[in-house]
Amino acid sequence: MPTRARAGPSSPYASDEPPSGFTLADQVKRFARAKASADARVMDIDAVYDGSYLEGTRVLVTGANRGIGLALCEELAARGANIVATCRSASDELRALNPAEIIEGVDVTSSACCEKMAKAVSSPVDIVINNAGYFYEPVEKVTDGSLEFDEEMKMIDICALGPLRVTNALYHAGKIPKGGKIAMITSQGGSVTWREVQNPAGGDYGHHMSKAAANMGAKLLAQELKHEGIMVQVLHPGFNKTDMTAKYAKIWEIEGAVDASVGAKRVMHEIGLMTPEYNGMFINCEDGLQIPW
């Protein structure tokens, strides 16, 4: 029988020694190595991050009312950016930042709603951060009969189609100019290559399928919009301590989870480095290295 190369643990991209430029699949080992080597990029983002480029830029953030979205807005406000915050309902914390614009009632599962939002944006933006997401908390498995297909479709609709709806609406409303940057906040959980390492027992279907679909959409978008002079990058924001990841609180420390404020700086650091040369790449914001598809 013919032999075939595998994309599981035997793949160099999922091994303990990935190819140059790629990050490690095993998050516990990844964080332990960074800690042991005192890797400033991982352990102290302030040592490498310069957010001065954000002053005066117009940045649109979806899902801006809480979690990493709110943390991104807080970082943007601190750097003098003009924030266009979109969300279902603004929180007091978001309003306190006094964004240039707050657009409420945004449901990323509705094309009509996204089109209305895009028209409401007063002028073109320099950066779009597609951050809105949804994470169903219970672990789902076939073997114990715990699959919730409605929840899985909801995750796919919000996490994969949502960013595409938002980007499509903004593009056709003339709100993403040539030279614009689009950051797709997805997850390492969308890496098919890494599933045998990170999910040896399977499960959590909706989450991983939605992120893999989001990654594919982002890659296709990068290929299409590069001809318009617009850059797209796929960003894993790192492991952040938010309500959305609370079900993993017991492994926060061993896997190097950080406060959302740190995660926000990591994301903005990578967006600052985004150039046509890196268009369409899948980047781990923890260390700046690539994640395999």
TrEMBL record:
<dbReference type="GO" id="GO:0016616">
    <property type="term" value="F:oxidoreductase activity, acting on the CH-OH group of donors, NAD or NADP as acceptor"/>
</dbReference>
<protein>
    <submittedName>
        <fullName>Dehydrogenase</fullName>
    </submittedName>
</protein>
<dbReference type="InterPro" id="IPR052184">
    <property type="entry name" value="SDR_enzymes"/>
</dbReference>
<dbReference type="InterPro" id="IPR036291">
    <property type="entry name" value="NAD(P)-bd_dom_sf"/>
</dbReference>
<dbReference type="Pfam" id="PF00106">
    <property type="entry name" value="adh_short"/>
</dbReference>
<dbReference type="InterPro" id="IPR002347">
    <property type="entry name" value="SDR_fam"/>
</dbReference>
